[in-house]
Amino acid sequence: MTEPIEQTDAVVIGAGVIGCAIAWRLGQAGKRVVVVERGRVGGEASHAAGGMLAPLAEAEREDEFFNLTAASLAIYLDFARELKASSGVDVEYRDEGTLYLALTDEDEEELERRWQWLNLSGLNVKRLNAGCALKLEPLLNQTLRFALKFPGDHQVDNRRLMLALRGAARNAGVEFLTHTEARELLTENIAGRRRISGVVTARGEIHARTVVIAAGSWSSLLRCDEAQRFEVEPARGQMASIEMPAPAARHVIVSRRGYLVPRLGGYLIAGSTTERVGYDKRVTAGGMASIIKNAIEIMPSVAGQAVIETWAGLRPRAPDDLPILGADTRVEGLIYATGHYRNGILLAPITARAIGELVVKGQSSVDLAPFSVNRFADRQVVD
Questions:
Q1: 272 preceded by cis ω (within 30°)?
Q2: What percent of the chain has pLDDT over 90?
Q3: So where are the chain's domains?
Q4: What's the pLDDT band for 161 if we cut at 50, 70, 90?
Q5: Is the omega angle on the peptide bond into residue 319 within 30 degrees of 0, that is, cis?
Q6: Alpha-carbon distance 317 to 235, whole Å?
Q7: pTM for the complete prediction?
Q8: CATH, range 5-49+160-232+319-382
Q9: CATH class as words, domain 98-150+235-311
């Protein structure tokens, strides 16, 4: 592509789980959509994730972010069913729940704190003594003190999810430009107001009245002097898959130091590290040693199992760990859907709904104010 393509309705920058879910919804609404991706579809953080849908197990407090994650989980089963109908791919949605283990004195203190506020808030959490937890998962560490069970926390196979989203989006008429870097946003002045007019890519210009930035860890590298400044940095997470011991685990199993996610294919996903090392995606000896140590602590029998695969991904992290969602108030037609950090898989349905509504209707039924890019303007004034 050496010349600008004809006018399109929307350009989505980034073909991860967030970008593909938004593009699919826009395609369903009859919009002509082009997705620009620097690599391959779903090849970055979405491919590297664990697929946990765990707003309760990971919650620190009942706030706007928790409400957003809970709202996304509430529509996830329908989202998965619709994806299967649209793509033919089963994302292996599983609802056995999460077990959060107390294995040390410090774990007991932390889980006791979590139990108190979750229980007082009337949220769906159960406290299990060691015997009850071991009946559910016999291979757990026998030194287990107690566990919290989160029946409402579920999981999907994130790699199958990406296959489904890619297929559904294409079936909805979405066009993908892969291995194509988005370099700069184009704007124009109309009646004294800046508005988006397209994007410059490595293969030329694409003109559109709406641009959605969903480029994950690369989102803040896009140049646009008129837009609100923001920062999304990569946070490396290393992972491993381990052959499943017998009897097979059913629940997602979490400690304060690591987690194990069972897959229907007969293996466990073990994770994870959180490292600020820039755009370095190497798998390191230290990272793997930590993951394997934590996996064995959770389930000692994995020590004799084969390591099937190791990998690393770059999670997109904003300075306050919250996603950046909604419209840019300085540049009309510029919309953000990035910074999902450790919750991109979980937040895909609600983000796609919210951003889809924003593009199609001009407003969203989801309150995006707590996640607006404008919060960084306030921070810059203070600085």
A1: yes
A2: 93
A3: 5-49+160-232+319-382, 98-150+235-311
A4: very high
A5: no
A6: 7
A7: 0.96
A8: 3.50.50.60
A9: alpha beta
